[in-house]
Amino acid sequence: MQLHYAYKISLLRHVSTLRSFRCSYVDECLLLRTSESFFVDQKLPTLSRTFLKAQAYTSILISAALNLLTSPMLHITSCSAQAPYREEFGSLSSDHYCPSNDQELQCEPRNSASATAMRSEWIECVRRARIVAVLALLLLVTFLLLGFRQWQAAHQPLFNDQSIAIHEVSAHVNPGFIFKFEPRSSQSALIEEGPAKPNGAVQTRGDASSEESDEMSNTSAGSDFASPATPLPPEIMSLKRLEAGLHNARISMRKIAFIEKNRTREKNGTRALRAREDQAKGYFPWGPIYKDASIFHQSYVEMEKRFKVFVYPDGQQPLVHNGPCKEIYSTEGRFIQELQDKNPFVTKDPFKAHAFFLPFSVSMMVSYLYKPNSRDMGPLLHFVKNYVELVGAKYPFWNRSEGADHFMLSCHDWGPHVSRAHPHLEKQAIRVLCNANSSEGFVPYKDASLPEINLVGGHIPAALGGLPVKERTFLAFFAGQDHGPVRPILYKYWEGQDDDIKVFHKLPADTNHTYQEFMKLSKFCLCPGGYEVNSPRIVEAIYNDCIPVIIADGFVLPFSDVLDWEAFSIRVSEKDIPNLKLILKAVSESKLKEMQERVRQARRHFLLNQPPQPYDLFHMILHSVWLRRLNIHLKYQ
C-alpha cells in the first residue's frame, strides 16, 4: 500500500512538472524529475526506491517521446492548412526538442529553403523521439521485471521446495466465545478487570509491547491487522497484535530468501572464512548441513525476538509438569522441566503467547496409569481427553483456534496413540513426537519430529567426538535387542557374517571394546528402527562422530525443516539391507571425511545443555514449533 501510494505521488509530480515546464532538454527533464531527495524522504527500502525511480523514468521518457512526436505534427498540420506559409517553425532550433508553450507558431510562405529546413528539423525530431521511445521501452521492461521480482519476493516460500514453507493457513477463531468470555475467580492470575469502559470490555493483564504496537501501526490499512473503525475487546486486539508480529516475521524471512536466491554466490573459501569470523562472535549457521543457512538464521533471530509460549498451570505432578530427565525418554522430561523454570520464551500472560503448551507427560502416564501387560491404553486416553476439555472450558484459547496454536510433546512410542484421545489434538494441534512415522498419521508440515536421546545417568557423555575416518577400524556397527520388524532382517544378513560390519544382539563377553568405543571405531553407525521408527542411536552416532545409517522407512527425521540430512547421513531402505555393504563401500574416502566433518558440525543441535545454549536441542525444538506457528494465521470471521 505504501509503495503504491508513493508511486502515485511521484508520477503525479513528474507529469505536472512536464506539463508546466515543457523542458527543452530531455536530460534536464530527467534530472529535475527524479530528485533523489523525494525517494529518500519517503524512507523506503533500496529495492522500493529503485522500483519507483524506474517507473518515474519510464513515465517521463514516454511523455517526452509523445511531445517530440506530436509537436512537429501539430505544426505541420496547422501550417499546411494556411496560405501563404510562414517561415518560422516555432522556437524549434538545434538546441531544442520541442517548442515552448508561450510562443505561437507563425507560418511564413513556404519556399524550398524553409521547406528543407522544416523537413530536416522534422527528421531530426523524429529520430530523437525514436531514441527516447526505445529508452522508454527498455525502462518499461526493467520496471516490469522489478515489479515481478518484488511480487516474487512477497510470495517466496521460506524453505524452498525441499522443506516446510510458510503456508499461512487461515484458522478462523470463534468470536462468540471470546466475546462471552468472563474472568472467573480461578482465572484471576490471567485476567484482571480494569476500569469501566464504554463497551464493557475486559482489561487484559499487561499491554502489548511497544514493538508490537509499532508493527500494528506500520501494517498497511488494507491488511487483516489494520485497526478497526470501532473499538474491539482487548482479547481480540491482543491477538491482532500477535498476528501482526508474525506477519512481519514472515516478511522478514521471505526478504532474506529473495536476497539469497538472487545474489551472486561467493566462492566456498570466502564463505567459509566469513562463517568462521561469525562464529568468533557467536554461532552463525553455515554450510551444506542446512537447506538454507541464511533463512534458518533469520528465522531463529525472529524466534528469539518474538516467540512466547504459555504453559498451562493446571494439573498436578507426576503426570503433569514433570517428566523423566534421564535414560531413554530424557528429551521429554528435560523440555517440560525447562519450561517450568524462568525461561525467556515463557510468558505468564496468555494473551501475549503465540503458542500454548500442554505439559502432560506420556512417559509418566505409562508409569503411573498403565497396567503392565494389559494392553489397555484407556486410562491414558481418558486422562488426556479430560485435560484438554479442562483447559478448553477454563480458558478461551483452545476453543478460539480449535487447538491449532497448541502443542504437546512426547518421546514415548505411544505419543501418537495418546493424541487420538481428542480429535482436535490429533488433527489440529502441533504434535512434537519422537515416533514421527509418516505412515501412521504424522503430518510433517503440522507436526514436528523430536530426536530420542538416551542419557545414561542423566548426563551427556563427557567424551564427545572420535577418531578421524581413516583411523577407524570397522566399516559399520550395531548392537541392540530384537525389537520390531527391521532388526531381524539385519541380524539375518549381517550378524557374524562379515568382519567389516559388526552386528550384535548383545556385545560379546570376550570383546575388548565398550558400546561407545565400537561407535568411535566405526565409520558408519547403523540406526534401524525398533518397535517404532525412531532410535536413540542416531544421536549416539552424532555424539561419536560416526556417520548415521538410517534404516527406517517412513521416519521423518528431526529438524528436517532446516537440516539437510543427506549431507551428513546415509539413508538405506529396509528392502536394501542385503546390499548394505555395497552401499557403504561405494562412499569414497574423501566423501567420508567430508560427511564426518558435517556430523561434527551438526552435533550442537542435539546437545541437551543446562542451561540451554543458542541453537542447541531445546532451541531447535522451539524453532520447530515456531515454524509451524508461522503456518497458522488466526483470523476473526
Q: Any overview of this molecule?
A:
Keywords: Golgi apparatus, Membrane, Signal-anchor, Transmembrane, Transmembrane helix. Residues 191-230 are annotated as: Disordered. One of its GO terms (cellular component) is Golgi membrane. This is Exostosin GT47 domain-containing protein. It holds the Pfam family Exostosin_GT47. With 637 residues, the chain is of the alpha/beta class. It has 4 domains: 2-154, no CATH class; 169-303, no CATH class; 309-454, no CATH class; 461-606, Glycogen Phosphorylase B (Rossmann fold). The protein is 45% helix and 8% strand. It is built from 22 helices and 12 strands. It has helices spanning 2-21, 26-33, 36-41, 46-80, 112-154, 175-180, 210-218, 234-262, 268-281, 293-306, 330-340, 362-368, 378-394, 397-401, 415-418, 423-427, 487-494, 515-520, 537-543, 580-585, 589-602, 617-630, and strands at 169-173, 309-311, 355-357, 406-410, 430-433, 448-449, 474-479, 501-504, 522-528, 547-551, 570-571, 632-636. The strands form 3 sheets. It has a 5-stranded parallel beta sheet. A 5-stranded parallel beta sheet has the order 8-7-9-10-11, with helices on both faces. The chain has a two-stranded parallel sheet with strand order 1-12. α8 runs antiparallel to α10. The longest helix has 43 residues, at 112-154. It is flat. The two termini are 23 Å apart. 38% of the residues are buried. Mean pLDDT is 75; it is low at 1-12, 14-45, 73-110, 154-229 and 264-269.
